[in-house]
Amino acid sequence: MSGAASYRGRFAPTPSGPLHFGSLIAALASWLDAHAVGGEWLLRIEDIDPPRCPRGASEDILRQLEAFGLHWDGDVRHQSRRSEAYQHALEKLATLGLAYPCGCSRKDWQGFDHYPGWCREGSLHPDRPQAWRLRTDSTHQPVKVSWQDRRLGRQEWTPAALGDVVLRRRDGFWAYQLAVTVDDGDQGITDVVRGSDLLDNTPWQLLLQRNLDLPTPSYLHLPLARAANGQKLSKQNLAPALPRSEEAARTLLHAALRALGQHPPVESLDAPVQEQLCWAKSHWRSTAIGQGDIVFRPALESR
């Protein structure tokens, strides 16, 4: 974790629907990790995929965070307004020979674990709409990338085994990997606290940081939050939405603190969120976060 004076964290939800308990785990852990050392906590709305982002979803997310007392520093950033910065980064990668246009569809390579890099030396389908991909072959990138995750320990990955990730989609929309890397660098993010479902995204982001001359943050990947049936909590799996009133948020906040291994006082179960956050901020220990997944049982957590 970075020093108190320089810590800058962020929470970056996709506004494809309301936040759920899994989102709360990520937001709360990143908020506490920042505020426990007097750092900043920024809010970034990752709305680069308009078809997935219904009208009003961003505003709902802001209201949900406010209900839990998770206030952010500075202005909210919207990735939908950042196209020029992403285009500049893509052009730099292309100039370096690290990004290339690709007209292949997923159907073309459905028999492979990942895209085989067929268009690296020139698009096989120049008549189709073109995506842009990042080269991960070892002649252009390091054979392995590694980092020290604050919960999971040393991570070492082979980029070529992950494939050439999309940077800009065939429909013209920007892809997550490029946008998140450019914005983390531009906003000076020092510490990324997020779910372990994004662990295998980190190698691509480390490559992009290296290729774009951006600093690499510290990473802490959190346990996944799952329903009692084992499914990952997600909007696609219809996870219950977080409340938008402070009173309704109290018991869920207490449950989230317990899920993160923080052992809040039992008597604070129904305490105002600011009181719970004040205790949590002064007692925060990221090392107390467990190694196993988090199981969410709505009937118990909302009692």
UniProtKB/TrEMBL annotation:
<keyword id="KW-0547">Nucleotide-binding</keyword>
<dbReference type="GO" id="GO:0008270">
    <property type="term" value="F:zinc ion binding"/>
</dbReference>
<feature type="binding site">
    <location>
        <position position="119"/>
    </location>
    <ligand>
        <name>Zn(2+)</name>
    </ligand>
</feature>
<keyword id="KW-0479">Metal-binding</keyword>
<keyword id="KW-0436">Ligase</keyword>
<keyword id="KW-0067">ATP-binding</keyword>
<keyword id="KW-0030">Aminoacyl-tRNA synthetase</keyword>
<dbReference type="GO" id="GO:0006424">
    <property type="term" value="P:glutamyl-tRNA aminoacylation"/>
</dbReference>
<feature type="binding site">
    <location>
        <position position="194"/>
    </location>
    <ligand>
        <name>L-glutamate</name>
    </ligand>
</feature>
<feature type="binding site">
    <location>
        <position position="46"/>
    </location>
    <ligand>
        <name>L-glutamate</name>
    </ligand>
</feature>
<feature type="short sequence motif" description="'KMSKS' region">
    <location>
        <begin position="232"/>
        <end position="236"/>
    </location>
</feature>
<dbReference type="GO" id="GO:0005829">
    <property type="term" value="C:cytosol"/>
</dbReference>
<dbReference type="GO" id="GO:0006400">
    <property type="term" value="P:tRNA modification"/>
</dbReference>
<feature type="short sequence motif" description="'HIGH' region">
    <location>
        <begin position="13"/>
        <end position="23"/>
    </location>
</feature>
<feature type="domain" description="Glutamyl/glutaminyl-tRNA synthetase class Ib catalytic">
    <location>
        <begin position="130"/>
        <end position="241"/>
    </location>
</feature>
<keyword id="KW-0862">Zinc</keyword>
<feature type="domain" description="Glutamyl/glutaminyl-tRNA synthetase class Ib catalytic">
    <location>
        <begin position="8"/>
        <end position="106"/>
    </location>
</feature>
<dbReference type="InterPro" id="IPR022380">
    <property type="entry name" value="Glu-Q_tRNA(Asp)_Synthase"/>
</dbReference>
<dbReference type="InterPro" id="IPR014729">
    <property type="entry name" value="Rossmann-like_a/b/a_fold"/>
</dbReference>
<comment type="similarity">
    <text>Belongs to the class-I aminoacyl-tRNA synthetase family. GluQ subfamily.</text>
</comment>
<keyword id="KW-0648">Protein biosynthesis</keyword>
<dbReference type="GO" id="GO:0005524">
    <property type="term" value="F:ATP binding"/>
</dbReference>
<comment type="function">
    <text>Catalyzes the tRNA-independent activation of glutamate in presence of ATP and the subsequent transfer of glutamate onto a tRNA(Asp). Glutamate is transferred on the 2-amino-5-(4,5-dihydroxy-2-cyclopenten-1-yl) moiety of the queuosine in the wobble position of the QUC anticodon.</text>
</comment>
<feature type="binding site">
    <location>
        <position position="102"/>
    </location>
    <ligand>
        <name>Zn(2+)</name>
    </ligand>
</feature>
<feature type="binding site">
    <location>
        <position position="176"/>
    </location>
    <ligand>
        <name>L-glutamate</name>
    </ligand>
</feature>
<feature type="binding site">
    <location>
        <position position="235"/>
    </location>
    <ligand>
        <name>ATP</name>
    </ligand>
</feature>
<feature type="binding site">
    <location>
        <position position="115"/>
    </location>
    <ligand>
        <name>Zn(2+)</name>
    </ligand>
</feature>
<dbReference type="InterPro" id="IPR000924">
    <property type="entry name" value="Glu/Gln-tRNA-synth"/>
</dbReference>
<dbReference type="Pfam" id="PF00749">
    <property type="entry name" value="tRNA-synt_1c"/>
</dbReference>
<feature type="binding site">
    <location>
        <begin position="10"/>
        <end position="14"/>
    </location>
    <ligand>
        <name>L-glutamate</name>
    </ligand>
</feature>
<dbReference type="GO" id="GO:0004818">
    <property type="term" value="F:glutamate-tRNA ligase activity"/>
</dbReference>
<protein>
    <recommendedName>
        <fullName>Glutamyl-Q tRNA(Asp) synthetase</fullName>
        <ecNumber>6.1.1.-</ecNumber>
    </recommendedName>
</protein>
<feature type="binding site">
    <location>
        <position position="104"/>
    </location>
    <ligand>
        <name>Zn(2+)</name>
    </ligand>
</feature>
<dbReference type="InterPro" id="IPR049940">
    <property type="entry name" value="GluQ/Sye"/>
</dbReference>
<dbReference type="InterPro" id="IPR020058">
    <property type="entry name" value="Glu/Gln-tRNA-synth_Ib_cat-dom"/>
</dbReference>
